[in-house]
Predict the 3D structure of the following.
Amino acid sequence: MKKLELHWQILISIICSIIVGILLPQSVKYISWLGTLFLNSLKMVMVPLVFSSIVVGVSNIGSAKDFGRLGAKTMFYYLTTSLIAILTGLLFVNLIQPGKGIDLGLSQSIEGLEQAQNTFGSTILNIIPTNIFQAFTEASMLSIIFFAMIFGYFITKLKVEQNITINNFFNGIFDIMMNITMLVIKFAPIGIFGIVTKVVAEQSLNGNLWNVITSLSLYMLTVVISLFFHAFFTLPLMLKLIGKISPKAHYKALSAPLLTAFSTASSNATLPLTMEAIEHKVGISKKITSFVIPLGATINMDGTALYELVAAMFITQAYGVEVSFTNQFLMVSAALLSSIGAAGIPMAGLVMMSMVLSVIGLPLEGIGLILAVDRILDMMRTTVNVYSDTVCAAIVAKSEGEHLKV
Ligand code: ASP
């Protein structure tokens, strides 16, 4: 019998989770550990995988000239698409005006958000770690990536003999990590069953499932339409026009990581699957995959950037605050910075929201408005975040003259 492909297994697992979550919410206590085990395994591979992949990626690039060109191209793509995503959100939120005329009450407040205010500033400063081992234990991805890039670069400066030894060593580590990762991936459908059943059951038990859907539907609709526009129009268009790649074939090759991004709401947790699909299904070289994808999972978040802007505008509309052109510009910049600074974990975007609101002097309790529907939007924006990284990898690979399988 032919084995069912992974993305079908995942899809079936999501459907089963929804049915079980709604009909048998009490069963969660017997099921959710499956999700915990799966997430733990993904976290286990994350740091060594990212570190070894970037070291290998950078050191394999060889000459510094190459590295600079690849780095510049990637950064240019990442900033441009995030900005386009934000402007798409700005357009739709101004057209639909989801917050106008709705009085949702602004009395809720969230503890701890004040502390998150300076997250972005400290994120930038902490890119250079004072102690790299601390960065490893705390999984500070930006610091790890920064250190891995320098480390990889200086491997290329070693004498030939040393270079070969160290290169072989890190290539070996990277291959081991990829193999462990692929073992973990085999368990994705079971893990996702554990995660999604828990989310569905929780929402349906506290009666939020329908409440959430009806009361904030317009706001959700705005985010969803904007995300769809970005994922099904802007990015495929770039893929077709700049990369000369069929968007349909690209989607197909990426279905497993995209569905995983949707169900885990974490770019970091999806990273191993994304790398596997990009290298083996799309056929992009290890060199580009291991540089572009981990970097993207950390700093390129088109979905999050778009969401930050729409959510902030929604809150200002609900407060009845007219946002001047200057303030809209400030919000756009803040949305861009917060998406760069947000970690690839669930709800990170919601925490970064406080930065966007404080930029224009709005009270942080406005975030209470959007808290209830965050999870479902998080799932969607994470999928767009991951998708954008893969589009970048494909475009960069094509521009470097690689022949892809899609
Ligand atoms: N969950 C998102 C991600 O991992 C980040 C966010 O909360 O927007 O990509």
Summary: Residues 28-61 form the longest helix (34 residues). The pocket of aspartic acid is lined by residues 265-267, 301, 304, 342, 344-349, 378, 381-382, 385 (CB under 6 Å).
